[in-house]
Amino acid sequence: MEESSKLDKIIEARMKLKARFEDKMKNTPSMADERPQGHGEINRHGMPQVPVGQTLTTKWPVLDLGYQPNVTLDRWRLYIDGEVENPVILKWEDFMALPQTEDTSDFHCVTTWSKLDMSWVGVRLLDLAALVQPKETATHLMCYGYDTYTTNVSLEEALKPDVLLAHTVYGEPLPKEHGGPVRMITPQLYAWKGSKWIKRIEFLDKNKRGFWEERGYSNTAYPWRNDRYS
Ligand SMILES: Nc1nc2c(c(=O)[nH]1)N[C@H]1C(S)=C(S)[C@@H](COP(=O)(O)O)O[C@H]1N2
Ligand SMILES: [Mo]
User: Fold this and answer.
1) In-domain check, residue 40
2) Ligand 1 in reach of 210 Cβ (< 6 A)
3) Can you give the CATH number for the domain in which 220 is found?
4) Which helix (H) or strand (E) holds 10?
5) Whose CA is closest to 105, among 121, 97, 94, 116?
6) How many domains are there within the chain?
7) pLDDT tens profile 35-62
8) Do residues 223 and 48 touch, judged by C-beta distance below 8 A?
9) Domain-located, residue 141
10) Which of 6-10, 115-119, 181-185 is predicted least confidently?
11) Which among 62, 63, 65 is the best mutation to test ligand 1's pocket, defined by most ligand atoms within 8 Å of the CB?
């Protein structure tokens, strides 16, 4: 297929997905809550910049399972499958040929630190979803890291425009300790919902718990509701 018609297809599929999840998305806490809990200036999403219980840091702590996988670009693959019409296995070149998004967003770790205004480049989860075309039955994702990490996210959160599979941070390739070559980021949810060293995205027709969710962390992880445990 020609590059331009490929792009047209992604754009068309993106618009359809947006329409399909619009109402659900409007009802998510980061868009619907009248009194989001937190303090500081109001950010571009209408939320207080610092969610309840969080403290700002300018450092960038590293959190992992005690193991940082070494995934070279030639061996890197991204598997996207499950409840989709068009499962794919992307190589690095395929991934970099997709529409690229630059964004500045905040990072909230459940262990109570937040880091503001991080600048990222990556591919929107929305555009990856447009590529694989989730079936009508798809409601959630399970994301898998090369380190065996897993985490679950609902589609109405995952398809928001600032959820990226990021390969660049502050203008440089994402360092290995922070999940390079590619990690997911979920600025509107606690950061454990974004898998570092992401390897596979599985679309699910029901919710399942990931690594931390099975160990008592919240399925939903809304920072402005102090939604840490369940
Ligand atoms: N694959 C993988 N992803 C992960 C984790 C992990 O251990 N493995 N930790 C999560 C947690 S708890 C947080 S707060 C962020 C930390 O990202 P950072 O180490 O870049 O600060 O990554 C999340 N994603
Ligand atoms: Mo975390």
Assistant:
1) yes
2) no
3) 3.90.420.10
4) helix 3-26
5) 116
6) 1
7) 999 999 999 888 999 999 999 999 999 9
8) no
9) yes
10) 6-10
11) 63
